[in-house]
């Protein structure tokens, strides 16, 4: 099992080697938001994009048309041995239909549940 430091180094190497998927998010591959609990790995199997602060692997979910209130839960599971774990902390951005960012959540604004 790779250590946390090794996992981070491997992820950085994969990201450095990745080509960006597109010039704008409107050209990115999208998928419907899963309606049931699902597992997703953010790594070199996902598309990469330069969001302005550097390149990142990402998934672009298309949210359902608003009919009633709903919530989305995102969690991360630590990887590596107990003495040297790595934890992926996602950045979450919401965009309108014109791909203008409307909300942003980072490690300080995501809620711990």
Gross geometry: globular
Assign the structural class, choosing from mainly alpha, mainly beta, alpha/beta, alpha+beta, or little secondary structure. alpha+beta
Reading the helices and strands in chain order gives HEEEEEE
Average pLDDT confidence is 90
Low-confidence stretches: none
Helix content: 10-25%
Strand percentage: 15-25%
| Spatial order of strands in the largest sheet | 1-4
DSSP summary, beta strand count: 6
Distance between the termini: 28 Å
Query: Could you describe the largest sheet, including whether it forms a barrel?
Result: 2 strands, parallel
Question: How many DSSP helices?
Answer: 1
How many discrete domains?
1
The Cα radius of gyration reads: 15 Å
Quaternary organisation of the protein chains: single chain
């Amino acid at each position: 099992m790779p250590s946390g430091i090794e996992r981070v180094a491997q992820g950085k190497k994969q990201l450095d080697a990745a080509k960006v998927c597109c010039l704008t998010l409107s050209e990115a591959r999208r998928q419907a938001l899963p309606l049931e609990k699902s597992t997703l790995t953010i790594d070199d199997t996902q598309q990469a994009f330069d969001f302005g602060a550097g390149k990142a692997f990402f998934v672009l979910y298309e949210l359902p048309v608003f009919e009633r209130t709903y919530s989305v839960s995102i969690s991360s599971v630590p990887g590596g041995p107990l003495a040297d774990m790595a934890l992926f902390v996602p950045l979450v951005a919401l965009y309108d239909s014109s791909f203008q960012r409307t909300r942003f959540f980072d490690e300080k604004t995501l809620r711990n549940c």
